[in-house]
From TrEMBL:
PANTHER family: EXODEOXYRIBONUCLEASE III. This is (apollo) hypothetical protein. It comes from the Eukaryota. Residues 25-166 form the Endonuclease/exonuclease/phosphatase domain. It holds the Pfam family Exo_endo_phos.
Amino acid sequence: MRGLPGPVRARLRTLATTTKIHFANWNIGTLTGRSTELAAILARRKVAVAFLQETRWKANRNRNIGHGYKLIYTGCSGGENGVAVVLAEHFHDSVLEVRRICDRLMVVSLLIEGVVTHLIRSYAPQIGCSDADKTLFWDRLGDVLCGIPLSHDVVLSGDLNAHVGEVQGEYERRLWLRPKKHRGENHSQNLHCS
């Protein structure tokens, strides 16, 4: 068995090594009184980026929560819903932009290994919410996704509050499909957005 030609071997040595990034997704219930505990858990599990929902905080701020983690969050005046992205210390200086679209949707753009990466945190309205709220959320998420250049990377994390059910055809290759008995009311909006 022959090895690779010399020029190819030389090129392989010069390629940058890829970095593993550990992600977490957490329905926190409420973040009040839990931020220090959250930071300790993320540090212990070596999580670089955590996506949170149901923070139930009222403002739009950034905050250091310990162990080198920065919490970027958005909420509403009523203290309902709320989403957040938590970044490990080595990503603090990589933040290019934070867009807080609403209390259910935010985008944190980072420069990771020379590539613009958009971290999208979404939390879709549940079955009990109005159809207008659901439509507005899906329209906003669609606008965010359509506005990202193809040359950029995207990490979409969220609780989309829908089960897609037994759908064949064009959606079959895009989503993990669940049996019809587990299909939620929001399944068609979820499929349309994908």
